Amino acid sequence: MPYLAAADRYSRLPYRRCGRSGLELPAISLGLWQNFGGVDPAETGRQIILKAFDRGVTHFDLANNYGPPPGSAESMFGEIINDDLKPYRDEIVVSTKAGYRMWDGPYGEWGSRKYVLASLDQSLRRMKLDYVDIFYSHRVDPNTPLEETVGALETSVKSGKALYVGVSSYSPEATRAAHQMLKERGIRALIHQPSYSMLNRWVEDGLLKTLEELGMGCIPFSPLAQGFLTDKYLDGKPADARASKEGSFSQAMITPQNLERVRALHAIAKQRGQSLAQMAIAWVLRNPAVTSALIGARTVAQLENSLDALKNLEFSKEELAAIDVHAKDGGINLWKTSSSSKVMLD
Is the peptide bond before 68 cis (omega within 30 degrees of 0)? Predict the structure, then answer.
């Protein structure tokens, strides 16, 4: 039976304007970084994506290297958007990125014009789309002039292959430089996608203020600290956790100090009538500079639990003060090198 979207989907979730642009994004967006690759059950991914849309989530975030294997998340999403969501394409915001390694040789990663534009073409083919709504530079390339990377983003818009462009894991200084270069070309730098959570607060040291000044939106990824800010780590490391497997979550992150922080934050969430994950998402959204929180999901139930964070977005001064006691840097910012890289301006 053909998929039919829920008729009440737009009454179930708030939308926020993306900086000073005309685009609104759902308060929570779905990222396909984990659990949507070729090694994952395709039907589960389909159910999560369709349930998200039924709940009002209109923004789906990808990157060329999402998988595993790299590219497979875009291929899977391409099947779903063409088989199930094609009638709703104009209601959906699709984003992808280029920056990390995708193929062999000197042109398979970073920020050269050759790589960035080739990557976008490959992404469009995998997703069977004529354009993406947002195209990102996924990381700073310290060895390519920023003007070259920005020029590739300009071409993506002027060729009609992207409606908007943004950056990810750029420092405040690099963000400001990219914004100015795009502005000189008549293009708005729409949005920044940084890592941000209660255990990774680097964006508060200048980036959020910069984005507000520039009129750019902000869509933090990993607000749950890659699953650390959930109930699963309250008793230590579970066998089925991401930290038990090879990948982005290092076991070195599970320190006694971090576990103590997680347990204390869980107690505060319980007092608020929320799960720790729900409070972590609501906490990121407390800042008016944040447009949308970018979450992942392994199951439909996990997705729904995260979306229910929107039932309680208010924090008292006392709650925020109590959270601040424990919401300290936990050494889990894996993207620190990119966000501290100096851009090449010549």
Answer: yes
